[in-house]
Design a protein that fits this description.
Length: 89
């Protein structure tokens, strides 16, 4: 056990507090949508059917946001949609 003493020490709150003082960088990229795409999607609707866990729900929300940035509108019914996404694991 003497060869690996750090693995048997309890975590130190003081050391953790020192580590948490470092700022976390936030990286954002700007998504630029081609105006021609916006013209194409002007009156188009999307429908997303999500199956699975909370992570899938989050992914569905992310996809919906991207589609809306591209000019699509959310369809209330699957039959109204021009594009249907099946979101699974």
């Amino acid at each position: 056990m003497k060869a690996c003493p750090k693995y048997f020490e309890r975590p130190s709150l003081e050391e953790a507090a020192k580590r948490s003082q470092k700022p976390i960088p936030i990286i954002r990229t700007e998504l630029k949508i081609d105006p021609n795409l916006l013209d194409y999607t002007k009156d188009k609707k999307y429908f997303i059917q999500t199956f699975g866990c909370q992570a899938n729900e989050r992914d569905g929300e992310f996809l919906a946001g991207l589609l809306e940035l591209c000019g699509y509108q959310k369809a209330k019914l699957r039959e109204e949609a021009d594009i249907i996404l099946l979101n699974t694991c």
